[in-house]
Write a structure and sequence with these properties.
By secondary structure, this protein is of the alpha/beta class. The chain has 17 helices and eleven strands. The radius of gyration is 20 Å and the shape is globular. Bound molecules: NADPH dihydro-nicotinamide-adenine-dinucleotide phosphate. NADPH dihydro-nicotinamide-adenine-dinucleotide phosphate (NDP) binds at residues 9-15, 36-39, 58, 98-100, 103, 121-124, 148, 200, 202-203, 205-206, 264.
């Protein structure tokens, strides 16, 4: 029987990995919606190849171009925030939430409100919305499957066990492209160097987050919501080979780890087939060839982002949304050559210092906090 799927962020790196797997089992899937921001060429190509019911661009300015590119095709074409939310709310068996940044929050919430299964890559949405998103999942009877590789690993290690039996959950971090760099070298790091991740091929924003280690900070907050253990039960360890994707230690001293190649198609496949398994074309892990797996402590002097994220998680309320918004603005400014690499975490810390915790009660509250924190962060980057 065919299953239906929508892919929010279809033109991105996670979107491409998902569609690669779908394309190999094309007859098993009916594609409802594919969405992008402004990449008309790629979205039109995907529309022709996968024949979804609807394609949506978040950026309305490109709508005429998309209509022209798909003239004569039997596919609905739409654009704008409302169209994106409407497409995300069409009932499907599985939604892949793979938009980058808090821009993915409203459409992800629209999918959750349908009570279906949402496979979440868009960590910024959960970091910002936290309790509000988790409450919506419970209220609407939705299922959230993590496809971020670490959280997917933890999800697999927890299968058949109870959270109450867990001693610690350890997220592994590759350490990014600047792992061994001195503070002086980090000052001069360029966007080109930052997006060149040693193990993973990903979009620009998450690549910079991996370089600053904010990615691991966001993942700590993500893990706190997905697997509600105390914050002091969540650890991070640097593991440069990215073979062990995360670990769960139980109270009896047993540690379960999930290992696999550094290829997002593995965790995505686990969500596509869940609770079954499916074949992937990924190269099998060859541990003899890899030889050694190594582990190191975090260095929060050179990479303060994980400390900031932990503090934001401890503060709770709207503070993680502020952390995320400030980080998105600072990363964009770094990629545009406006601020130095080491200023990313410094800007986030400055914005955070202006906020007192408040409890956002709904999506609108979170989007308001996000907008306000962005304004403040932009003010800082423009005066840098
Ligand atoms: P990419 O930058 O490669 O792709 C982002 C996608 O989101 C594109 O389809 C893009 O459209 C769309 N998009 C961008 N801005 C907006 C917007 N304002 N409104 C609507 N859509 C938008 O990102 P990745 O695939 O690397 O990452 C996606 C998410 O998954 C992120 O949250 C990331 O942290 C997470 N993730 C990614 C991993 C990876 O390996 N890449 C691993 C684990 C998690 P367009 O192409 O038109 O710009």
């Amino acid at each position: 029987m065919q299953r239906s799927i929508s892919i929010l962020g279809a033109t991105g790196s996670v979107g491409a990995s998902t569609l690669d797997l779908i394309g190999r089992e094309r007859d098993k899937w009916r594609i409802a919606a594919l969405t992008a921001n402004g990449n008309v060429t790629e979205l039109a190509r995907l529309a022709r190849e996968f024949q979804p019911e609807v394609v949506v661009l978040a950026n309305e300015a490109h709508l005429p171009e998309l209509r022209e590119a798909l003239a004569g095709c039997d596919v609905e074409v739409a654009a704008g925030a409302n169209a994106l939310a409407e497409a995300a709310s069409r009932p499907v068996d599985l939604t892949i939430a793979a938009i980058v940044g808090c821009a993915g929050l409203a459409p992800t919430m629209a999918a959750i409100e349908q009570g279906g299964t949402v496979a979440l890559a868009n960590k910024e949405a959960l970091v910002s919305a936290g309790d509000v998103m988790i409450a919506a999942v419970a209220r609407h009877g939705a299922t959230l499957l993590p496809i971020d590789s670490e959280h997917n690993a933890i999800f697999q290690c927890l299968a058949g066990n109870q959270l109450s039996q867990v001693r610690t959950i350890t997220l592994t971090a590759s350490g990014g492209p600047f792992r061994g760099w001195s503070l002086e070298r980090l000052e001069a790091a360029t966007p080109q160097q930052a997006v060149r991740h040693p193990n993973w091929d990903m979009g620009a924003k998450i690549s910079v987050d991996s370089a600053t280690m904010m990615n691991k900070g966001l993942e700590l907050i993500e893990a706190h919501h997905l697997f509600p253990v105390r914050l002091d039960q969540l650890d991070i360890i640097v593991h440069p080979q990215s073979v062990v994707h995360s670990m769960v230690e139980y109270r009896d001293g047993s540690t379960l780890a999930q290992l696999g190649p550094s290829d997002m198609r593995v965790p995505i496949a686990s969500a596509l087939a869940w609770p079954q398994r499916m074949d992937t074309p990924c190269k099998p892990l060859n541990l003899a060839q890899i030889g050694q797996l190594t582990f190191e402590e975090l260095d929060e002097v050179r990479f303060p982002a994980t400390r900031l994220a932990r503090q934001a998680a401890e503060a709770g309320g709207a503070i993680p949304a502020v952390l995320n918004a400030a980080n998105e603005v600072a990363v964009a400014a770094f990629l545009a050559g406006q601020i130095a690499f080491t200023r990313i975490a410094a800007h986030v810390e400055e914005v955070l210092s202006c906020y007192a915790p408040a409890n956002p009660l709904c999506l609108a509250d979170i989007l308001a906090v996000d907008e306000e924190a962005r304004k403040m962060a932009r003010g800082l980057t423009e005066s840098a």
